[in-house]
Amino acid sequence: MVGFTREEVLQQLRERILAFATSRVGRESAEDLTQEVLMVLHEKYPRVLSLTELVPLAFQILRFKMLDRHRKLLRRGEYNQESVDDAPLVDPSEDPSEEAEQRERVTQLIEALQQLGERCQHLFRLKLEGYTFPEIKGIFGAGSINTIYTWDLRCRKQLLALMGGQWEAKPFKSDAQPPNQETVS
Fold first, then answer.
1. CA atoms of 170 and 101, how far apart (whole Å)
2. What pLDDT score does 52 carry?
């Protein structure tokens, strides 16, 4: 345009871009997008001076920036986030009764593992160290991997029986009966 410097044209264009972006994404994001569009125009298109060329170019860049922002927010999962103010306050520490139950289960598990035979203890140790069944077969020198599977099953059954027939503690009930030992064996 005649009589306008590039800075004046960009200032008017900035207002248009900001108004358009604000109507789509909100004030804070719109200001960021407007700034990014003006940076691209300044860095990559310094020779474009005409308002008739600059306006369509700026809005095309803005559309690309808005799409990029949309993809980024979608990828990060920010559209489905809850407000921090709406979230209930939760005590980060566990319930003392749950901690006590967990300690009791761990103690019971350690005692049960110590009652197992040497082969079962060694098998569990190897599994906890991350060895696969074929590797364990090689360590034990077993003829077949099915032998290791059978040992593992028997050891787990023994451990379960030593743990009282259940892996997890059942909720306390005053009228509850002890587990039937026939079903455990």
1. 10
2. 82
Tokens (6 digits) for 75 = 């990828």
Closest CA to 108 of 160, 173, 181, 68: 160
- Centre a 10 Å sphere on the Cβ of residue 57 and count the other Cβ atoms it contains: 18
Distance of alpha carbon 46 from alpha carbon 9, whole angstroms: 12
Asked whether the whole model's pTM tops 0.85, one would answer no
Cα–Cα dist 124/118, whole Å: 10
How far apart (Å, rounded) are the C-alpha atoms in residues 154 and 117? 11
* Structure tokens given for 13: 């264009």
The pLDDT tens digits for 25-43 are: 888 889 999 999 999 988 9
Residue extents of the structural domains in the chain? 6-79, 98-169
Which tokens go with 110? 């350690």
